Amino acid sequence: MTDPDKADPETQNRAADHRALWLCVLLVAAAVAATWPVLEMGTNDDSSYTYIARHLAETGHIAYNGWTAVILIPQLVWAAGFVKLLGFSFFAVRLSTIVLALLLAAVIYRLGRESGLRPGFAAFAALTTMLSPLTMPSTVSFMSDVPAFFLFAVCLYGAVRAWNAATARAFAGWAVLVASAGFLSGLDRQIYWLAPVLFLPILAWVRRRQGGAAVPGAAWMLVAPAIALSLKWYAAQPYTLKEDIAGGLKGVTASALLHTEALLSGQLIFTLALMLTPVLAGMVAPGLRSVPRWAAAAAIGMVAAVGLAGLHWPQLQSPLMGNVLTHYGAVPVGVVVFGEPVLVLGTAAGEAITMGVVLCCAGGAFAVWSRRDAIRAGLRTDRSPVPIMVLSAVFTAGWVPVVLVRAATSPAIDRYVIPFIALAGIPLLWFFQQHMRGVLSRASWAMLAIFTVYGIAITHDAFAGGRARLEAAEALRRAGVPRTAISAGFEYDILTQLEAVGYVNHYLIGNPKGAYREVHCTDATPWYFEFLPQVQPRYVTSRSHIPGWAGAARPISYTTWLPPARRQIFAEKIPDEVRIGCH
Questions:
Q1: Whole-structure pTM over 0.70, yes or no?
Q2: Counting Cβ atoms within 10 Å, is residue 451 exposed (0-12), middle (13-18) or buried (19+)?
Q3: Peptide bond into 512 cis (omega under 30)
Q4: Strand partners, 557
């Protein structure tokens, strides 16, 4: 029998590697379980995606329904397999994303290890990304963020492995993975087609003197026409959305466009910095100590100035963008439109978060600047993050213009930055590991714990509220109220529309001609009703009792992690003199 104390060092390192990887996967699985994502209704936009996946499982055909501008094919096929195996339910479809999230945690870990991170730091990179309060709500949904990011991460991992490959054969194999995974990632969300289109030429250039450069070139020649054919196929499908960016820019002045793009750029950068706070927190104290006192004092003064500015400009209070992370939890406020929402992050909390992010950024910048010469020398060594830094920079350079131009007509949202948590976090962690400390600081672990608990809490509470809304709506239906006469939030109402006519009445539908019917809405109608004219509500579910409206059923109580822990959903009858809806 082999003495474990005398085991080969390589074997011990491999065992530590496996333990760290499995720890990441198990922690993500535990966090998912803690949210209890059981709800027979969609979350955010994924009700329509789930409807498509169910149709694919039942008929073998993909039928879009007027509420997606992304292609979705890989995740639809993947989810259809779960539906075939488990039978249809929203949880079965949601489970397909959860499995990909666990695999994504492992890929990010391996990406960190290939970029020179030790096991503990690579695990931190994976956990910071997957346990983020921005990522967690998408992990337990059927949104396209996690499935497309998983395929993109595989593509990026293949590109880093190809860059570091020791043989021409290994390089060719990894280049093929870049092409195939990159193509599939774009077949889910089109913007990820930037990855194979940009990565393959870079790999060919890197390999130009070592042989094998023809492989990524040949792969690019296959991927490019495949992308063109996929776009042509998607454009020909009924009930897909045709975004008219050029038309949306008509009449927009250059100054107004510049203001919009500058504001969005700042919001995206700040949101990413907020998500990187667990990484940056450990750099604050060393960073402030590494610069002259006047510079440290100036940074602290800047933090105080940001706090004072937040008193006059509430838009400076975190979170800045909304959609997933809001002041009201993990859902857009407009998804549940009736009644008063519960404020989760008040003014003081929003200002404190903003000030903390600014302080962390300042400390991180000081730490990097003071060690810039050592960093340059370290980047020339083997197993450095140079490949991921170059590839990420090139991808970002292509991604930013696309998002900024599209945002001129369609709002950009916070979950767009999810992939960049790993792309920026891995190089930052390498810097910390190589040039600051060999182990992560307690401040970083503490901040990650806070982020994790908060992300689980807001996700859990969103599902608890969703279950209460669904129960209130079902109580009305048992009382004989038709579904089309009930509004229980966007996720419930869009299914009402789809089950009634099969598609959403969206003005961007170009095929078939005449599918979109112009509507006229009453003044009191919430924003999304113009897309759902089949919903003519006489009853609503509400977060609070609405004065002057009559209760139609007993309130549904539910429990949340965040205060107030006991909440209620009310079923209200709309007064006869109040008209809500679109015709």
A1: yes
A2: buried
A3: yes
A4: 568
